[in-house]
Structures are given as C-alpha cells and as structure tokens.
Amino acid sequence: MAHTKAGGSTALGRDSRPQYLGVKLHDGARAKVGSIIIRQRGTKWHPGKNVRRGKDDTIFSLINGVVKFTKKHLKKYDGSLKQATIVNVHPVK
Length: 93
Fold this sequence. Notes:
single chain, ribosomal protein, 4-stranded antiparallel β-sheet, Ribosomal_bL27
C-alpha cells in the first residue's frame, strides 16, 4: 500500500512568456534597414522621418542611420495638445 496519496497535476505552475517591450535602440545608436527601434503596445512613441509603425505598433527603421528622439506637441481629437516623443532616423553622411 502507498504511504502517501497520489500527487496529481496542479492547475497552477505555469507562467506566461514576457513580452520584451521597450526601447531597443537608444538615442544616438546606429540603425540598419528594418531594425526594430521600439517594441510597444499603443503609441507611447510616434514614428517620424525614415521610420514606420508595424501592425503591432513596433517602430522600425527604413534606412541606415542614427536614431534621434525629439519632443513635439500633437493635437488630440478634442483639440487639446499633448506632448509626444517622435522617433526619427537620420542618414549617416
């Protein structure tokens, strides 16, 4: 006879994968064509020159260059202004 009760599986014990969001290339870093600059949900950072936003809101580079972050006031739908961070890639000379 068994001395302990059979240990069944538990509903706990699993963990979801982290999303690995955030800035991947900081200000002044060199970016290649197609390299991911920022992984985000929503538009905390907005795309600028030589940068596009993917369908999952990832910001990536269109050219080889240097990453630059700038601040700009953008008009919201209700007419108020909000300060947004714009991500640009400037070509290297």
